[in-house]
Write a structure and sequence with these properties.
362 residues; alpha/beta; 7-stranded mixed beta sheet; 4-stranded antiparallel beta sheet; 15 strands; binds pyridoxal-5'-phosphate
Length: 362
């Protein structure tokens, strides 16, 4: 039997034909019309007024912070449980990362701890919609940031296809950021997107990503800028993937529901509250006994099933080594496990993974 990966990208003859047609058309590969089309399709899908695509979903976060004027002497609030890209994206701005513990209910930044972490130096909050979930009190986060004059950057890297009150995640704050890396619901190999309704922020991002140029191709430099540009070759892939996105979003929900129906009553498996009407979970995530997680992963691997532990609590990683305590993030990091989650999974594969989970004595 073929190994079931925890996650994998999915391309087929449609992407191959589109890339072939593009290359035969004499495209220059670097960003041009296809990139603009891809941006328009992301803006239309998310309902954002503007979109700018960049080289990946880490650079996108740095550019978002820089566009908001975050810099030396500022503090940025980041959840302690997220992919390391979120805090790492703060470093190039010169600002200091302030880790905030998460809420046990949705695994996003905890509201009260966020409020308590604000100081006169706080300039921005990075709200990560981890695994496509957001706090039910999202409106309160937005209101708090607005009232306190804090920029709200939504790291929605894992949330393409997820909504709250019908509105797409990434469109609640000042800027939303997405990623198209290989494991994401749609992929362009690497890639990131920024969405905003604010034309000034869009203009700042467009300069930051293109050497600070006044306009594409115009060698007059208004601000400091770098090269974070996309390519038309990726955009050609991305446009086909966008057509597949609505089906994948529904398929992910169906896969999550199928897992849950079979594993809901298994002692030792804990689920995180998930509203499938709005959330399309990127990964199938469960909590298990921390002392049994490695043995469970080995059990699955012996049956040709891939799995992956949650991210670590970032404050304690050597790169940050902060002598702090964030008990919820620490517990979640010790207990969390991601099961096979690709939209490509068949029902039979999901059932096979569930049977293997049930066999193991948690
Ligand atoms: C929450 C979060 N933020 C940022 C990133 C970084 O995106 P990229 O890999 O495109 O740089 C990821 C990627 O996994 C992520 O999950």
């Amino acid at each position: 039997m073929e190994f079931i990966n925890q996650m994998e990208p999915w391309f087929d003859a449609r992407e191959a034909d589109a890339v072939d047609a593009y290359l035969r058309s004499g495209g220059w590969v670097t960003e041009f019309r296809k990139t603009r089309e891809f941006e328009a399709s992301i803006a239309a899908y998310t309902g954002a007024a503007h979109c700018s695509v960049v080289s990946n979903g880490t650079v996108s976060l740095t550019l978002a912070l820089l566009a908001c004027g975050v810099g030396q002497g500022d503090e940025v609030l980041v959840p302690d449980y997220t992919m390391v890209a979120t805090p790492n994206a703060v470093q190039p701005t010169g600002a200091r990362v302030v880790f905030v513990d998460i809420d046990r209910n949705h695994l996003c930044m905890d509201y009260d701890r966020m409020v308590a972490a604000v100081t006169p130096r706080t300039k921005a909050v990075m709200l990560v919609s981890i695994n496509g979930r957001v706090p039910e009190r999202l409106a309160e986060y937005v209101r708090f940031c607005r009232e306190r004059g804090l920029w709200l950057i939504e790291d929605a890297a894992q949330s393409l296809g997820s909504r709250h009150g019908g509105k797409h995640l990434g469109t609640f704050g000042d800027i939303g950021s997405f990623s198209f890396s290989a494991p994401k619901v749609i992929s362009t190999g690497q890639g990131g997107a920024l969405v905003t309704d604010n034309p000034k922020l869009l203009a700042a991002i467009q300069k930051l990503r293109d050497f600070g140029r006044e306009a594409p191709g115009a060698d007059h430099y208004l601000t400091m800028g770098w090269n974070a540009k996309f390519t038309d070759l990726q955009a050609v892939l991305g446009l086909v993937q966008m057509e597949k996105l609505p089906w994948r979003v529904e398929r992910k929900k169906a896969i999550y529901a199928r897992y849950q129906a079979q594993l809901r009553d298994v002692p030792g498996i804990e689920w995180i509250a998930t509203n499938l009407a709005e959330t399309s979970p990127w990964f199938i995530d469960v909590l298990v006994d921390a002392t049994r997680r490695d043995a469970l992963m080995a059990h699955l691997k012996a049956r040709q099933i891939g799995s992956r532990p949650f991210y670590p609590a970032l404050h304690a990683e050597p790169v940050y080594a902060r002598a702090e305590q964030h008990p919820v993030a620490e517990e979640i990091a010790r207990r969390g496990l991601w099961l096979p989650s690709a939209s490509k999974l068949t029902d039979e594969q999901v059932d096979f993974v569930c049977a293997a989970m049930r066999e193991f004595n948690l």
